[in-house]
Design a protein that fits this description.
Blueprint (H helix, E strand, L loop, with lengths): L1 H9 L5 E4 L11 E3 L12 E3 L5 E3 L5 E6 H5 L7 H14 L1 E6 L32 E6 L3 H4 L9
Parallel strand pairs: 1-2, 1-5
Antiparallel strand pairs: 3-4, 5-7, 6-7
Length: 154
């Protein structure tokens, strides 16, 4: 929610947002792309540029919003190495503009899944969701320039 408010306060209407996972609703003033759990495949989302040519929306630039819940959630999956390398390339290649970390009761774990639906088991689980949300500036051409697109076999 803090990241959503930051976007509304600082980004002009019409900006493209590439949002990982299943985020809160953004106003219709933005062009929001939700690639779900596959932000490494953003080049598959198409958009029409100012010149009228249809191309990968990510190549037009915008803002990439990531969530540690999805990054950390891949650790036990078969593709864990490729996903970890992808997030490493993100952090190394793109300009981090803002980072929202858990509050004073924050948990270093990506999320407290076992108590998510039963806060009576752990009364403070709602106060410590553990997410770290990062907002990166994505300039036109950055995605391909830094080779952030998916790797073969990923």
């Amino acid at each position: 929610m803090q990241a959503r408010e930051w976007v509304h306060q600082r980004l002009p209407a019409g900006e493209q947002l590439f949002v990982e996972g299943y985020p809160p609703h953004f106003n219709d003033e933005y062009v929001v792309h939700r690639p779900g759990l596959h932000i490494d495949k953003l080049q598959a989302i198409k958009a029409v540029g100012a010149d009228g040519v249809k191309r990968a929306a990510v190549d037009l630039g915008g803002w990439l919003i990531t969530d540690s819940f999805y990054e950390e959630g891949w650790r036990l999956e078969q593709q864990a190495d490729q996903r970890a390398a992808f997030y490493g390339r993100l952090r190394k290649s793109l300009t981090l503009v803002k980072e929202f970390t858990p509050g004073r009761h924050g948990d270093p774990m990506p999320f407290v899944l076992d108590t998510l639906y039963s806060p009576l088991v752990d009364m403070w689980s709602i106060d410590r969701p553990g997410h770290t949300v990062r907002i990166y500036r994505l300039k036109a051409g950055d995605w391909r320039h830094h080779k952030l697109q998916a790797r073969p076999g990923s």
